[in-house]
Amino acid sequence: MQGQIRVTIENLSPELDGGRYSIKRIAGERVTLEADIFSDGHDEINARIAYKHAALDAWNYTAMVPIQNDRWKGSFVVETMGYWDFCIEAWVDHAMTWQHDLKKRVKGKQKVGVDLLIGANHLERIVKKATKREKVEINKVIALLRDEKKYEKAIEQALGNEVTDWIKRYPDVSICSHYPSEGKVFADRKKAGFSTWYELFPRSTSTELGKHGTFKDVEKVFPRLEEMGIDVLYLPPIHPIGVSNRKGKNNATVAKKGEYGSPWAIGSSEGGHKSILKDLGTLEDFQSMVKKAAEHGIEIALDYALQCSPDHPYVKEHPQWFTWRPDGTVQYAENPPKKYQDVLPINFETADWKNLWIELKSIAEFWIEQGVKIFRVDNPHTKPFPFWEWLIREIKEEHPEVLFLAEAFTRPKVMQLLGKLGFSQSYTYYSWRNTKGEITEYVNELTQTEMRNYFRPNFWPNTPDINPYMLQSGLESQFITRFFMAATLSSNYGFYGPVYEMMVHDAIPGKEEYLNSEKYEAKWWDWEATNKLKELIAIVNEARYENEALQQTNNIQFCETNNEKLIAYFKQNDHGTNSLLMIVNLDPYYKQGGYVKVPMNLFGKSDYIAYVVHDLINDTSYTWSREWNFVELDPYVMPCHLFRIEEV
Amino acid sequence: MQGQIRVTIENLSPELDGGRYSIKRIAGERVTLEADIFSDGHDEINARIAYKHAALDAWNYTAMVPIQNDRWKGSFVVETMGYWDFCIEAWVDHAMTWQHDLKKRVKGKQKVGVDLLIGANHLERIVKKATKREKVEINKVIALLRDEKKYEKAIEQALGNEVTDWIKRYPDVSICSHYPSEGKVFADRKKAGFSTWYELFPRSTSTELGKHGTFKDVEKVFPRLEEMGIDVLYLPPIHPIGVSNRKGKNNATVAKKGEYGSPWAIGSSEGGHKSILKDLGTLEDFQSMVKKAAEHGIEIALDYALQCSPDHPYVKEHPQWFTWRPDGTVQYAENPPKKYQDVLPINFETADWKNLWIELKSIAEFWIEQGVKIFRVDNPHTKPFPFWEWLIREIKEEHPEVLFLAEAFTRPKVMQLLGKLGFSQSYTYYSWRNTKGEITEYVNELTQTEMRNYFRPNFWPNTPDINPYMLQSGLESQFITRFFMAATLSSNYGFYGPVYEMMVHDAIPGKEEYLNSEKYEAKWWDWEATNKLKELIAIVNEARYENEALQQTNNIQFCETNNEKLIAYFKQNDHGTNSLLMIVNLDPYYKQGGYVKVPMNLFGKSDYIAYVVHDLINDTSYTWSREWNFVELDPYVMPCHLFRIEEV
């Protein structure tokens, strides 16, 4: 058998590391595959994709078609959530070759008596697989091909479409090539590709000055978040906070009495990763909050932060999961000469790694049981890659709806690998991509390279760890443009909530860190406050819900402008029925004008045919009819256009 | 163990189809590998290449070093012919991490007492592997690190080079990552990369008009070939020629009495692929010819043409190896409506494929026993790819010196796959690449892409099957430039001998085929004839032997010129001691002049420093000192420069 196989299948795309990692899609999306497929000699070949949901047994098949230069293409839809398997199959199609050659022989006026007999033999094979009704028809044709007296009629029949259809319907795949590795797709729910995040510290939600916020207080913020169009609320760790080496305000080595410490110093005598900090409420309060959030269209995302305070129960129960030093002390987190004494890293090189992995997985499972379906994973790049690959696969096989956001701000290849390992979304370098050149290059890398298949960017203009230099000016126009681009460049985005909304920007001098950071203390925000930025957030998020073009990221296309300060980009939904054009003035100080080249061919217009650009921010419309159009944006009024392209 | 592994190795290059196919090198050449290697966290990592000749058991190791952005590099030399295996290994280097961190802690003025104890533990592991002599030294350092009284001295010692050396020499690879697949290299003998081919029909070597040439006659041509610098003489099939459906002159369907037929219609009642056509001589004559050739520095290359005339003994002995039609006749070769009735294709889809493969392999083995080490494989693209992969591996494992030239003029991906399957050299599209743009693009594709690792081009300006339109004019300058470029663009090249030398160019009208083709008749050439082309061939081939820069192909670099008719390219040997500059006037009718940009940095010159360009064709020298220099080439005198760059 192996020696009879003649078709080669190679150079499959997309393919991640020889099929080791799954590509990502949203359930209902189409997966398009291409491969080089060819045989020796001149015979006709054929190819198909076999595909199925991993949980099912029966394969589905869909035909591939040649494009050019021995490259073939085919596609299928991943209808439901979960893992899908696919494989490419190809074979020499002798029956098809026979029919093609017969046509050429007849054209060359050759005698084809023997060829008709060969055709009858092909049909003998086909008739065995055919339906009862087809069998009657096929047997008639077989008899005809063998009837020397009906030579002319037999030729006509042999070259007819009916025979072609039978050949295509019942291919002989007894000698069949398979692509060397099965491919995998993971189909996520819609939110994996389109989500609007907000981060707040629940301890800072009390409206009573000096009082520790609770889950009940968080619930009170929901109407505000709903109004702004938020659909994921991410909470930093909600677990008991360690007492030993607790950090004080502004990361002081010693906490003063009454200071709350960093929520990332997880675990105390009250419990660890499956417990709740008493000050926030009870497990019942948590469950109630999750339910209440859902009523506002909001999902709660929890932090999955695999580290322990020195007081975490694991330290006593599983000392083998930590690193012990020759002096009998346990190793705390360090990046010499920096020290993080309130946090112990887990020693993933422990010989007891199997039990460790199972316990860590049980943490995620515990919160999934409480209704959590989204985890923001803290520093995944400081835990081993094989652990993530295993954990995410284990969880997703049971709970395909669960999403993991990788909080890794590190080197490019590490961030890419985390995407391949299965993280549903990833934080990005967006926070540090400011100029037109930087943004264009980076977004093209994310959306136009292999990364589009496995790395789903989530754009954040700020986080509790990142107070970017660009925003430290406190300029309203900067906060507006950085938000606007996050929300329209990327279909997944978020921001570190009240701090961003209220344009807080005080920094530790010379650093991209917040002064008086909420990481080490509680805050009391004015949850009734409003401003231009907040209103814009609501408008843009509403536009995101109403315009499919903004609900994906890889559909972006940058447009030429003749002014370096003006960045413009175009997005369109799959059916081509929703087309948006975003234009931003990157200059926070000065009005900028210039020409933008609109990709009119993408929405079916040619030069001099009028179309309307309708700005969804201020509900103003302009009629354009040319490829290049003039715009002017004033940072003190509104530095962005969010144009929907409409008919006149 | 698997769960403790933390280093990822990915994106290895070069790598062919996930390691399935071997890359190619010449024995003695260096293999340079790169891969992305990184771990979670901030620990130091290390990596090495394990490599060995496939026939040996013990692995050798060579260190890899980081280049940038998590990419690592290393290299090794494939000293001897045959298959080599390699694998990349990487690990977290805890001892190295300890030393690096210690340095930072000391710099940060931290107390490092415990760190010195940790270091002592690392050395405890190392001392077990160390030599007797080292053991003494290491134990002293261990004691020092544990001696609280000698704190300062211990720090100094711990940070010293001696400790670094021990750490490097005895890495702890107990938790080690391996690249998922082992890589393979095939190391060929020198001739695989540097060869000068000549094709002649032995039946056309008689000096007596009307007489069939013999192996003895071929021997008489050897001095001429040696003088011209030929080192491979390729003979079309030398086996008995079928009588049934024998072709006549100019491919006539019926041969006249006395016509010899096509040598590719292999097999008659006299024998098949292991027999010799009686008219040529005996097996002893053949063996004698092979020996005689060697005395002239020439190797005989035979045709490995897997097809049979209807009279081949296989047809009766192994009817299952052919395709039989419903009328009881055997299927001859066809490309409808074209028919090749004198040739039967082998049915590689036979259920008896195992015996077929073994018999076909025995043909190659038979001729290897007779002293043949080079096969020119006829139409490999019309036989299944798995067969070639198996055959070439089987032969090369026993006889690594054997070379296979793929005669596949077909679609790009098929030609590429044949290279990957193991063919040592491949015919190319050179015959149809004429303009500066065509030549530059094609040669860059062959030498600057992944193809450089597996596809060794062999440039032929003509073959018995290809009388290119470009040469049908018969212009001497065309014959000169097409030869000159074949010989200097590619280190492997050849030509269809007497026809090319003597500038025969009569074509079947409208086709790239020779009129009165030698494929269907014998010729009587004047083996004493000489002309300018023949003299040039001798000069250029001598230059190829004397200048290492011309003995490889991938070292090519095209140079800018300001005249589209002037093509210029530069080659340098590995040590940078031999630099050549070739310039060709592609206009066969007119003198062309223009400026050529010389890559002076590559031979260590900067502007205004004089150097000599010495034309090896006419032994003339010019002193240049600038990057751009003027040349003028007259097609009626000599359309090429073959400059060696020399010191003033």
CATH top level assignment of the largest domain in chain A: Alpha Beta
User: CATH homologous superfamily name of the largest domain in chain A?
Assistant: Glycosidases
E-strand count of chain A = 30
The spatial strand order of the largest sheet of chain A comes to: 21-20-19-18-13-12-11-22
Instruction: Determine the CATH topology of the largest domain in chain A.
Output: TIM Barrel
Structural class of chain A comes to alpha/beta
CATH architecture of the largest domain in chain A: Alpha-Beta Barrel
Description:
2 copies of one chain form a homodimer. Chain A is an alpha/beta fold and 648 residues long. Chain A has 5 domains: 1-92 and 172-188, Immunoglobulins (Immunoglobulin-like), CATH 2.60.40.10; 94-170, Methane Monooxygenase Hydroxylase, Chain G, domain 1, CATH 1.20.58.80; 190-238 and 276-304 and 350-531, Glycosidases (TIM Barrel), CATH 3.20.20; 241-270 and 307-345, no CATH class; 556-646, Sandwich (Immunoglobulin-like). In chain A, 28% of the residues lie in helices and 24% in strands. Chain A has 15 helices and 30 strands. Chain A has an 8-stranded parallel sheet with strand order 21-20-19-18-13-12-11-22. In chain A, strands 2, 4, 5, 8, 9 and 10 form a 6-stranded mixed sheet that branches. The mean pLDDT of chain A is 97. The interface between A and B is large, with 60 and 60 residues.
